[in-house]
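Possible regression after last week's pipeline update?

I re-ran a chain I had predicted before the update to compare outputs. Posting the input and the new output here so someone can diff against the archived version. Not blocking, just want to make sure nothing changed silently.
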Amino acid sequence: MFRDRLEAAERLARQLSHLRGHAPLVLAIPRGAVPMGRHIADALEGELDVVLVRKIGAPGSPEFAIGAVSDNGSVALDDAARHFPQAPVTREVEKQQTLLDERRRRYTPVRAPLDPRGREVVVVDDGSATGATMAAALTLLGTRGPQRLTAALGAASPDALARLEPLADEVVCLTSPSDFRGVGQFYADFAQVEEEEVIALLKGDRNAR
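New output (post-update):
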C-alpha cells in the first residue's frame, strides 16, 4: 500500500529515471493523476499536461466501464457495450464528451494541448481496474506521432495490464496483484483531487499538491 499518490509518483519517477534528459511530455489522466504527473514531470525535467479521456459507464451501472471517449471526439466501445440498448449508451457518450470539452476549457484556457509528436510521452494514472481509460488515452496518443509511448500506473489489475501492453512501448506498474479489487485499496490516503488543484498544478504551482 502507498501512503498516498505522491509516494506512488516518487516510485514511478525512479523507475522512469532513464527518461531524464529527454524532455519527456508527461500526460496525466484527471483528476487523481495530475498531482502524480506534476511530481513525475518535475523529477524527469519534463513538461506536464493532461490527456482528457473518460470512461463510458454502462446504463444503470456507471462504475462498469464499457468503453471510453477522448477529447478529440473518438469513441472506443468494448464488446460488452453490445449488450446494452444503443440510445442510453449514446447519451452517456455525449455526456462524457461534454464534460471533456468543459474540462479542456478550464484546464488550459489560454493555450492548445501540448503536442506529443516526436516526443517521449508518459501517460500517468493512479490506477486502473479495467484499463479502458488508459487504453483510450494510449490509442489516441498513438495516432499523434510520439517518439515513444509509456504508460505509468500506481496499480492495475492483471487484465488491465494485458490490455495495455500492446498499446505502449513500455508499461510501468508498481503493483498488480491477482486479487485486485479496486484502485483505492492500494492508497492509505486516496482523497479526491479537486478541480482547483488540477488547474493550479497545470499552471506550475508546486505548492498545490
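Follow-up from reviewer: compared with the archived run. The helical segments are 5-15, 34-43, 86-107, 132-142, 158-164, 195-202. Marking as no regression found.
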